[in-house]
Amino acid sequence: MANFNVPKKEEVSVNNQQIFDSLKKTIGFVPNLYATIAYSDTALGNYLQFQNAKTSLSKKEKEVINLIVSQLNNCRYCLSAHTAIGKMNGFTDEQILELRQGYFSSNEKYDALVKLSKAITLNKGKVDNTVLDNFFKAGYTKGNLVDVIVSIGDKVIMNYLHNLTQVEIDFPLAKDVSLQ
Fold first, then answer.
1. How far is 76 from 120, CA to CA, in rounded Å?
2. Where are the alpha helices (DSSP H) in the chain?
3. Closest residue by Cα to residue 72 from 121, 116, 115, 120
4. pLDDT at 16
């Protein structure tokens, strides 16, 4: 396996240096996985534009997706990051563990979303009609469905990047949990 160090600001392109500065101002630091994307002169800017694009999904709904997809792809970095972000968005530790296991007991809408996201990820976009029907019955639209797929794609990019590079996790480590 190739050895991937986290690039420092002076080791990346001028454009990426500016993005590093912006990230430091916005979130207080440059997460190691974002810095790793900066090995490419263009990917970090492209990715951040993609990640921050408008969506019909709320921040909490995006975290539902981020947590289950990262669990399924066994990405310890993203699980750790999104456990912290999930808490910032109002999820409890117990709720986060439920989401990572593929269900949500206290909200029918989030339960339908996590089950659909799990099915899409596991089955490469082919899901049982019952799962899809439950998603729509919970109040989601076809537009929401498209945004769920885009959000899954976003998370897969980061999961694969970390799974291949294994850069140091710079968030509190998420607990191990197994799927139900």
1. 20
2. 14-27, 32-37, 43-51, 59-72, 76-88, 93-101, 108-122, 129-137, 142-165
3. 121
4. 98
User: In Å, what is the CA distance from 154 to each residue of 36, 69, 101, 157, 178?
Assistant: 16, 10, 20, 5, 23
- Furthest-apart CA pair in the chain: how many Å? 52
Q: Helix (H, G, I), strand (E, B), or coil: what is residue 177?
A: coil
- Name the percent of the chain lying above pLDDT 90: 95
Tokens 């109002």, residue?
Answer: 90
Q: Does residue 31 contact residue 85 with C-beta atoms inside 8 Å?
A: no
pLDDT on residue 177: 84
Residue whose pair of structure tokens reads 């972000």 in the numeric block: 85
Cβ-based neighbour number of residue 175 at 10 Å: 12
CA–CA dist 8, 12 (Å, integer): 7
Those residues whose C-beta lies under 8 Å from the C-beta of residue 31, and which sit 6 or more positions away, are 23, 81, 170, 171
* This prediction's pTM: 0.95
Q: Span 164-180, mean pLDDT?
A: 89
Residues 6+ positions from 141 with CB-CB distance below 8 Å: 56
Distance CA 41, CA 52 (A): 19
Cα–Cα distance for residue pair 161/173, rounded to 1 Å: 18
Q: How many CA atoms lie within 13 A of 60 on its CB side?
A: 12
